Amino acid sequence: xxxxxxxxxxxxxxxxxxxxxxxxxxxxxxxNWTHRWKPGKRYLPKIEEI
Length: 50
Known about the structure:
By secondary structure, the chain is an all-alpha fold. Helix content is 66%, strand content 0%. The chain has four helices and no strands. The radius of gyration is 9 Å and the shape is globular. The two termini are 13 Å apart. The relative contact order is 0.23.
């Protein structure tokens, strides 16, 4: 999941702070999702929109 988020973010020319704003989470959450943990199920619909 993290690789997908990062690849899509970069493909769209977005920075982590941009994605964080769209999903309404912190930049730290985006970093954690791309490096350590999976996002919570409640964030999946927003992630899929990106």
